[in-house]
Amino acid sequence: MLLTITNTRIPADDLSYLLHKHPGKIQSVETSAGKAHIFYPEVSREKCTAALLLDIDPVGLVRKAGPKGNDFALEQYVNDRPYVCSSFMSAAIAKAYSSALNGRCKDKPALVDELLPLSAKLSVLPVRGGEKLLKSLFEPLGYTIIATQHPLDPAFPEWGDGRYYTVELSNIITLRQLLSHLYVLIPVCDNDKHYWIGKDEIDKLLEKGGEWLPGHPENELITRRYLKHQRSLANEALEILVKKEDPVDEDGSEAGEDRAAEEVSEVPKPRIHDQRLQTAKDELLMAGAKRVLDLGCGEGKLLKLLLAEKQFELVMGMDVSYRSLEIAKDKLKIDRLPERQRQRIQLIQGSLTYRDKRLEGFDGAALVEVIEHLDEPRLASLERAVFEYAQPGVVVVTTPNEEYNVKFENIQQGQMRHSDHRFEWTRKEFEAWAAGIAVRYNYDVIFKTIGEVDPEVGSLSQMAVFSRPVKNAQGII
Ligand code: SAH
């Protein structure tokens, strides 16, 4: 059985660096089910395809599995396993492409997080549940699917179609994400119940699916099928997966923040996250911006507020998470908006750590509670992407004020407000970062508070507003 992966972003042979496999050689690795061969049917600057061919040894498989009590003896030898993509292909992906699957790239480490136009072709994939299932598994992850169903036997068309498909999946995605999706979802499509699994499969599922499975609408079906319908294993995995889910409240405020705000004040205050969004919108309005960006827009709360203001002629939301964008699209009811409104809103997938021409030419941008979701070393790339390349006229950035955490009863010392925060800054740290940007990219910056202000530790959330220095009539700053 064959899996090919194609990259079409120039230089397309970056794929070979990511896979740690030389494009000029055929390489082979042993897997538990047989030999996996890796080779490149096509390598050019424009297009590069890597193939993983798994040559299953059917007799070896039976010997390894040992005698199976009541099984129909011949079925052990005569079955579809050597000819289809199944969990054996997942095992081959893990063995042959282990560095790529684990997000390592020795020679070009920056490639690991690059969103690439990738497509994967699975030559024969058994799908119990047909095209509908394929779509429900892959579409929420942003894939376009072409599925070709094969007849049971071309010589007897009256027998109808079988459960075997050739599947082509395309997406703009990192290679690591693509491999982790294939690793988990190939056996889920196959849904073969004929092999024993152990507890370590839970770990594999959480390791490969931990980032995307909690937010996947079919996470329960995926978990149950992946764990071969072993109820106790599936329940255990689901418990961990659900716990891992974003602790952001329905309204986007983060664990504990609102409770703390209520404790400090008797009078009910607007929820802290609403305050952030409102303040960001007001800053963009006051700056007179017409074309605005919401960078790291998440599920579209700010976009909704921005769309309600006539001043904003174009509102573009960008996020790295396709799933969040889908939710935003639903919540904003984009498909049902009248044409003129529809023209004012655009949602794009992308990463703030790369230069993106689509972000150029805007008057204003907001990054509400976004920077703390990036690893600190990646902030330098975000800085360049936003302030050096996109260069919006005004940029509003909000982030938690770490000093205020002592006021949260449910946050221990040293703990952060949200499991996905990579850092939280004191006022000094945030101000130093912002001041550096202002100098490097020629912006003015002022700082504002958001939420309750404590005389000692400052406000709940902090905000920097960057703007281009005003020139006088002679163009002198
Ligand atoms: N601004 C939104 C969401 C904040 S949560 C709100 O205030 O409600 C942080 C968001 O940043 C998430 O949606 C996450 O997917 C997004 N994000 C994280 N890293 C990103 C990156 N490198 N590029 C773009 N978006 C990113």
UniProtKB/TrEMBL annotation:
<dbReference type="InterPro" id="IPR026610">
    <property type="entry name" value="Hen1"/>
</dbReference>
<dbReference type="InterPro" id="IPR038546">
    <property type="entry name" value="Hen1_N_sf"/>
</dbReference>
<keyword id="KW-0460">Magnesium</keyword>
<keyword id="KW-0808">Transferase</keyword>
<keyword id="KW-0943">RNA-mediated gene silencing</keyword>
<keyword id="KW-0479">Metal-binding</keyword>
<keyword id="KW-0949">S-adenosyl-L-methionine</keyword>
<dbReference type="InterPro" id="IPR024740">
    <property type="entry name" value="Hen1_N"/>
</dbReference>
<dbReference type="InterPro" id="IPR024026">
    <property type="entry name" value="3'-RNA_MeTfrase_Hen1_bac"/>
</dbReference>
<feature type="compositionally biased region" description="Basic and acidic residues">
    <location>
        <begin position="256"/>
        <end position="268"/>
    </location>
</feature>
<keyword id="KW-0489">Methyltransferase</keyword>
<feature type="domain" description="Hen1 N-terminal">
    <location>
        <begin position="1"/>
        <end position="241"/>
    </location>
</feature>
<keyword id="KW-0694">RNA-binding</keyword>
<comment type="similarity">
    <text>Belongs to the methyltransferase superfamily. HEN1 family.</text>
</comment>
<feature type="region of interest" description="Disordered">
    <location>
        <begin position="247"/>
        <end position="268"/>
    </location>
</feature>
<dbReference type="Pfam" id="PF13489">
    <property type="entry name" value="Methyltransf_23"/>
</dbReference>
<dbReference type="Pfam" id="PF12623">
    <property type="entry name" value="Hen1_L"/>
</dbReference>
<dbReference type="InterPro" id="IPR029063">
    <property type="entry name" value="SAM-dependent_MTases_sf"/>
</dbReference>
<protein>
    <recommendedName>
        <fullName>Small RNA 2'-O-methyltransferase</fullName>
        <ecNumber>2.1.1.386</ecNumber>
    </recommendedName>
</protein>
